[in-house]
Each structure stands twice: as C-alpha cells, then as structure tokens.
Prior knowledge:
By secondary structure, this protein is mostly beta strands. It contains 5 helices and 38 strands. The chain folds into 5 domains: 35 residues, no CATH class; 136 residues, Integrin domains. Chain A, domain 2 (Immunoglobulin-like); 121 residues, ntegrin, alpha v. Chain A, domain 3 (Immunoglobulin-like), CATH 2.60.40; 220 residues, Immunoglobulin-like; 41 residues, no CATH class.
Amino acid sequence: MFGHGLSRGSDIDRNGFNDLAIGAPNAEAVYLYRTYPVVNIHATIKSESREIKPDQDKVKISACYRLATPSKAREVQQQELNIRVAIDKMLERVKFTENQNNEMSFKEMAGPREQCRVLEVKVRYSEKDLFKPIELEIFYELANKVPNSEEFCKTCAVVDPAEPKSYTEMISFITGCATNVCVPDLQLRSKDVVPSYTLGTTDTLRLSYEVINQGETAYLPQLNVTSSPGLPFAQVPGNCRVREEVMVCNLNGGRPLANGDSDSLAITFDVSQLGGDSLTIEAVVFSTGIDKNSTDNKQTNEIVLREFTEIDVSGGPTDGQVVLNKHPYSAEITNIYEVKSYGPSTIEELTMLLFVPIAFKMGGAVKPIFNLTSLKMQASYDSHLLPIKLYDENNTLLNEFPLEESPRDAENDDQITTSATRERRDLGGLALNQEVEIIEKDNLPINRTLVLSCRDLNKTICIRSEMRFRVKPEKPVNITISFLVDLSYILDPFEYFVILTELKLLKESDPESSSLVIRRNIQPNVIYKNLDGLPIWYIILAVIGGLLLFGLMTYGLRKLGFFKRLKRDDLKRLEEENNLNDDSPQDQDCEPEDIERDGHSENGQNV
C-alpha cells in the first residue's frame, strides 16, 4: 500500500523548500522525501574598459559572481563554484598573465553578496584583426553535486537546468578616431509599428529597427530591446541573446559601424498571453564610444491594446411548439442555449444575465405560469459547472445552482467565482434593449395570445439568473433550464402563450459593450392550450352553478315584491265594498229599478 496517502508538503528540515511524506498504512510506515534547495548563479565578466587602445598591451578583467536562493539556511546560501574563464579562443590574441594561456579555471566560495576576482591579461593584435572584438566568456557551476545515494546531503543544492551556465562579453580595439574615445552618431528608427493592436488576432508582434551611424566609427554597436510587461520573445536572432527580459543584439555581425553604415534588425514578441490597455516597447542603441547625440539613440513605441470579440447567442425550446390538449394543461418545458465566442480577444470576465418570465398581471391579480420549485438550471463551460445565482424582481436571492457539486467541480470553480465575492451591483433596473427574433408569434391570433416579455415589467413578473466566467474563443457556454408550466386555471380568452426568454451579456471593463458584437438567435416558447375539449366535470359544475345562481336571483326578487299582482288585489277590494253596499238598509227602501240603475252605474264606474 505504498503511496496510499500523500501530504501536501511542508518544510520539515527548514531549508526553505517543502518536503513530501508518503504513507504506507499496511506497513505502518511513512517515507519522507526531502527536497534539495534551489539556487541561482549570477556570474558576469567585464574589462576595466570596453575599448583597448592601440598601444595598450595589458588589460584587467573582473570575474564577478553571486548566489540567489529563497532558503535562509547559511549552508545553502554559501556554495562553492567551479569557474572557468576563456578569452579570445578563436584568434588567441589574449593570454592570462598567471598561466600564459587563454583559459583559466578556479574555485570560489559564493554567497548572496557579489564578489569579483580581478585577472590580468596580455594583449597582442595585428591590423587584420583590428576590427574583430575580443570575446570574454565565463562558465560556472556548483562544485558540490547532489550525491547519487539514499543519504541526504544537508549542504548540497541544485541549480535550475533552464538557467544559463555561461556569460559572454566583448572588448574592441580603438582606432581611426580623433581622440582616444570614438564619437559615433548612432541614429535609431523603428519601422512597421502599428499604433493599436487587437488582442488575440495573432500570437506574435513584430517590430523592425534600423540603425545608421553618421559620426565616427562605432565599435561593438549593440541594440537592447525590452517591453513594459516583460513579454517573452518569440524568436531570438543568431546575433542576439536574452538576459533578464532584455534582448541584446550585436549589430553588423559584431563588426564596427563606420560613418554612413547601417544595419537593420527585426524583433518578434510573443503576445499570446498579452493583456491590458497598452504596450510600451523601448529600444536603445549604443557602442563603446561616446555618442554625439544621445537623444536619437532611444526609441519608445506606445501601442494601444484593444479588445474585440464576436459572440453568437442561440437556443430555445427543445420540443418546439407545445400543445396542451386536456386537463391539467401542464407540461415540462426544457430550453437549451449556447453562448460561443469567435474571438479574437479573450474576455477575462463576462457577466451573463438570463431573464425568465414566471407570472403575468391581470386585473390587479398575479397569475403564475409555473412554480419556482420546478425550476432547474445548469451552465457548463470548459467541462466545469458554472455557479448560478437566481434573483427575483426585487433583487432578492432565491436560489443558487448547482445545488450539489463534486469536490472537483468546487475546486475548479474557485478561480471562476473569485470575482463573485465582490459587492454585487444593483442590476434590477437594467433595460433589456436586446432584440429577440420571433418567427411564430406574428402568425398567432392577437386577441387569443398572451405574450410574456421581461421588457414589459408592468404586465410580466420575471426572475433573473446571473453567472460570471472567463470567455476564450471557440469554447462555448451551454445553459439548460427546465420548468413545469401549469395553465389549468387560466381560462378564456387565451389559447396561445408566448414566453420570451431574454439574455444579456455585460463586460465590466466595457459598460457600453463597444468591444462586443453579439449575434442573437433566441427562439421563444410557444404553448397552445386547446379549449375545445373541456372535461365533463367542468360542464356539470357550470350547470349546477347556473341553477344555483338562478334560484338565488328568483328568491331575491320575490323578497323584493317583484312578483306581487297589485291589479288583482284592487279588483278584489272593490268587489268586497260592493257586497257591503248591497246589504245596507238604505238599499232596501229603494225601488228595484233604482237599484238596478245604481248597480249599473257603479259597475260602469268600476269598469
């Protein structure tokens, strides 16, 4: 069971570098692997002057060296070096006074502070070699190597294999000048420099330089080029070398530049990881002499960096138009969207807002079309799940997705969600000015169609989901949302329901989105509710309700006297009065003819 458990590493021996502990539980043992400290060797070689006069036969050179390491241990900071110095190996015009050879080796104890060893050399030259500089080289390495055994060396250290193991310098001869020091007039010009650069369009950026000498001979002319963000160089010409983010180039093949001579050089930077708003590239040309006019020896180019990204936003329902033929008039709706960047620039942080209608307002009442508990959302980018925050119309946090995620997704999302810990901006008042193309909506009957759009907040209630991520070209973001729509309680006159899902993209560094070109093809959800096939219990309830309403109305009218016959009551009262008059004594003394006549008169009046 060796390797069952592995520690994250800690500095057990306090040498500044973490060690590893590997467990073997079945063997009841822990194996400790100690790491050797890393040191960097900085060594240079230089002469007391970069020029040798014609009558000068001796010159002193200095071999300097030091160590750099993050370790605080003294035994690590002090290391013995093997140093070898070689001078003019090809022409052998120079020899060390000490050994009469053009090479010399020695050991020195190096530490954090720079130390130098001064060496004296003898010089001889001829006219044919006058214009060829003397090359100085220093080679260095650690004297104590890491032993190839199980025993750990407490005083040993290692050097990064990528670090240089040598350093080169040049010495030229002075000749043909009015004084002991030549006075050249080097002029530096840059060519083919673009004022602005769109990030991501290319992986390299190329600049050309031209150097012209209008003064005395320039010995050992050199061109140094660097950039403000310390860009790496995509190519290193054969006459150049890179030292601490600076490219140093020997002009004219290392030969002197006489009056009127010129040389050109192209420098190529690696801009694949470039970012920011501007790029500054500085170049300077110099020689062993004192330049006549130093103002034209430097060239600084400011390049404005721009971002430009084309994004396609597409998607919609997976099942097309949904038809609900019978009660309970509900169905699960699934929408899939894709947000894909075609570059060329990478967007460090893009905020995506997805607006979904959940209810509409009618007659002062709010009528939901689906329950929030049925809503599910998922967004993935580059094989990782994106965190999603869900807000209501009042900017209240409702939920967060994904509800559950694996430890691997949690670790991968840490970098993506770093900016989400900032104070959240108020996004409730954002205007949705993005156009959504609706193909089927225009063919629907207006009076029987209900359109739910988050652009019309007076009639529609929406929720907003928010997610942030880094966008690289050709890597899409896939969003899936699903919910259970319920239209069982929504009656006439609506048969068609159009749900417009809105999507908005925001770039923090570009509030106006001037660096974005967004092409949208978002299809709405169209739901048809068939009202012809009402269930039988709907009809029965409607009939019973109608009868009950009719009975209540009839009872109320009766109580109000609507059905009372007033004419019939008046006739009955008159008849009773006639009967009382016929039975009175006055009526008994009258003649029959009078009675009959009176009776006819009264009857005529009553009639």
